[in-house]
Amino acid sequence: MRIISGFLKRKEIKGYNIDGTRPTMDRVKESMFAIIQNDIKDRICLDLFSGSGNLGIEAISNGAKKCYFVDNNKIAIKTINENINNLKINDKCEVIYKDYMDALKYFKENRIKFHIVFLDPPYDNLVINEILDFLYKNKLLKRNAIVICEYQKGEIESEYFEVEREKKFGYRKIGIYTKKE
To answer: CA-CA distance, 148 to 29, in Å (whole number)?
Structure first.
């Protein structure tokens, strides 16, 4: 896998074969970042269900101020740390080894808020609606925040968010959501 844009463009990252994960395909990632490129600079991001850290590292490469990487897979956490160290972006990253809900509660307790959230849970794990509700109800999003979801099954239905854009890539869907005001 490679970083597709920004100051780390063409740098390789590890993690394609982490058990229980599936990396975002390059063409999906390229499309996603083309849509949000003007929203990344100096932003605080959350890469929930990080896997290799692919999406959060891409955000850092495109000017994000900081990214929190969350995963509950030890191999994924080791891989994320290796990628961050190899790319020398440690000062912009915080890696958290927790279950997604424990991590969200941690952010709530520590009053950490985000401009951009990447939600790419395992496709069998239909938790996006639950996470959107938690983010909204617990005020974990900054003003004008966006949430980017990659999913396969089900529909995203939240009374607190509206879809800005949706795109299909075969069986995968990408949705970009903003808070209803």
So the answer is: 11
